[in-house]
Design brief:
With 154 residues, the chain is α+β, with helices and mostly antiparallel strands. It has one domain: RutC-like (60s Ribosomal Protein L30, Chain: A, 2-Layer Sandwich). 30% of the residues lie in helices and 26% in strands. A 5-stranded mixed sheet has the order 1-2-7-5-6, covered by helices on one side. Helix 3 links the parallel strand 5 and strand 6.
Amino acid sequence: METISERIKRIGIDLPEPYPPAAMYTPAVTIDGLVFTSGNDCRMNGTLLYKGKVGTDLTTEQGKEAARQTMINLLSTLNQHLGELERVEKVVKILGFVNSSPGFDEQPYVIDGASELLEEIFGEKGIHARSAIGTSDLPFGTPVEIEMIVKIKS
């Protein structure tokens, strides 16, 4: 049976080193078998994959790519926090914020980039509850910020 680590490599993902917090917070906290992550963005090699508002500066598809990269970064944080992603029992929820231009209403399609990746990696365990929220601005001009909650194996 294929492990989570093997599946991630098979689909062509190399988890980066997690980025250090940009301010006074911790990247992840575990309470009663649940891991709560702080928000992550779409950095690759220290630089945002995209910058700006979805709907004017970026297309929905580019926003979706940003959400996918954001989830890769979240998985990296989670992997460091847990020691291995095999400890994930269930992805419970993700909360996605989309830096949206006025009138842009396709936030769910943008955050699908993260949700689809979770299902591809974790299968049934990756199907989760979710909120996709449009916002007028996000830190550093990132188009997407996502946080997640996962249940871990005892």
